[in-house]
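Q: My labmate handed me this sequence with no annotations at all. I'd like to see what the chain might look like in three dimensions before we decide whether it's worth expressing. Could you predict it?
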Amino acid sequence: MDGLRFCAKCEGSIPRNSPAHELASGRVICADCWPANATQMHRRAGATRRRIHGDSNPTQAAPAGQKKGCIGCATTLFILFVLSMIGKCTREREELKRQREHEAWMSDPKNAATIRSWEREAELEARGMPVGPAEVVAAYESNEIAADRRFKGKRLRLTGVVADIGRDILDTAYITIESGNRVRKVQVFFGDEFESDIAKLRRGMTVTVVGRCNGLMLHVMLIDASFE
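A: Here is what I predict for the chain of 228 residues:
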C-alpha cells in the first residue's frame, strides 16, 4: 500500500509513478477520470482571474492602492489647510486696512462736525427723544404714515399720568399714559426686571419713561421701556 494514492472521483488506487492530477484541495484525480478539456478550462479560469485583478496574486495589489489613497487624502487635507490659512490672512489684512482707514477718517479735522453730530444723535438715542404723550398720539391720529417716519423705531422719552396698569395676553407688564384723547393713549411695555417698580405705581401718578416706539395699534406703543 506504500506509495499508493486514491482517486477522489472513482476511489481507485493510483500508483505513485502513474499520471494523476492533484487539485488545490490536495485531492488527486486519476488520468481516466480527468476530463480531456479540464486543463484548458483551468487555464482559462486563471486568465480570467488575472484580467479581473490585474495580477496573478490580487492580495499583493491592495496595499499599494491603499497607500495611494492615503497619500491623496493627506494631500487634499494639506491643500485645504493652506487655503484656509490664506483666507484667514487675507481677512486679517482687510480688517486691519479698514481699521486704519477708519482711524484716519476719525482723526481728520474736516470730519469733526460730522462726528459731533453722530455723538449728539447717539446721546439723544440713549436718553430718548423728548416728546409729550398728547403730541405723539395726535401725530398718529393725524397721519399714521408720517408719524411712523417720525417716531417708529426710535427711543422716546415722555412724562405723563398713569391711566391703567396691567398685563397683556403674553403676560407682559404694561402701563398706559393719558394723552388727552378719549380713546387712544400711550401703552408702555416693560421687561420682568421692572415689575417691582410697576407694583409701586397707582393710577393718577406721574411717571417719566423711555421706550422704543413700535407704532400704532389701539394705542401708541412703546416697548423695551424703563423708568427715569
